[in-house]
Write a structure and sequence with these properties.
By secondary structure, the protein is mainly alpha-helical. The chain is 59% helix and 5% strand. Residues 27-95 form the Carboxymuconolactone decarboxylase-like domain.
Amino acid sequence: MRFENTRFDPDGTPFHDLAKQMAAQFGYRAELALDPRLAELLRLRVAQLNPCSYCLILHTRVAAELEIPPEVIAHLASWRESAMFSDAERAALDYCEGLTLYDVARFGDLHERLRAHFEEQQVAEIAAVIINMTVWTRLKLAQGATPSADPPFAAPDTSE
């Protein structure tokens, strides 16, 4: 699998370096106090909400490496219809959607629900993980990070 930037090279401005610094602090390789499973579910949910091919592929792979069950990964988009997520994860996913989709009307309530499950430092990390992913999904969309098979897919031979 490889990705091609079809719109512009993100290294053309210092912004890409800033995004990399954020990723070092809150991306999938960062050392956080937050539970790694939850952090990765949040990253993947942001990638679903801001449909970013690069991020969906990367964070599905990372979730699998963290041994998050494939069934959980497969139906993260329908987490409200699942008993596979804890109450704390559900509060964090709801908060994730509110922050990513900028739901100002519900955000205060979402924050209070999150605080029922997490300490202030964890809430701050949850917000930072979501904001970092929002930046990356928007950057990858803007630069046109398009996945392609390496080597490119070939049509099956049907001559037999």
